[in-house]
Amino acid sequence: MNVTQAMKERRSVRAFLPKTPSAQAVHSLIADAAQAASGGNLQPWRVVALAGHALQELTDAIADAQPLPEGGNNYTYPPNLWEPYRTRRFKNGEDLYKTIDIPREDKAARLEQLAKNGRFFGAPVGLLVFADERMGYAQWVDLGIYLQSLMLLATERGLATCAQGYWRRYGDTVERVLKAPEPYKVAYGIALGYEDPSAPINSLRADRAPFGDWAQMRGFD
Q1: Which letter, b or e, does each residue of 32-48 get, where b requires 16 or more Cβ atoms within 10 Å of its Cβ?
Q2: pLDDT at site 87
Q3: 130 near 186, Cβ under 8 Å?
């Protein structure tokens, strides 16, 4: 598989097989992704991989925890989201719930699905990615490059992922359970494992805005 194929095949997977990737495979994935571009070579990421009892300890703690109030870095999206982003987010949500036959008015079922984030959607491996809170906007961009590199490598190696901003809502609990050193804060979680191809929710293929909506070509013949 080449990079172009991995880009086209990578997507957010929300149902996994019970097969656990080997420790070597997970170690190699995390390490190889660190070849990602990083301004000044700061490499502003810190990663903790969890499986087995360590994963269970965290998900049990999250099940009993209260989310942090939204604000600052805890926002998944800006408040009062504007167009065209509001429509894109709305459609993505509706398309997702349609795959599992949850109508918009069934708030309880939607909240139950949302809560599956706290179990990494049943993935056998959970990755927690931290950033030093003293870092700035440019280093968060670098962190995004690392995440994308990791997810593309995972796709190339037959693994599936789902990046989850959800874990920032429980940052205090995650940092306590994992004993994250100060001043590192949770940036993302990533569910990692092997896709369950029979799960209806994995049939979702998010669309993309037309090229002309967000890009321009200038000065070309």
Answers
A1: ebeebebeeeeebbebb
A2: 96
A3: yes
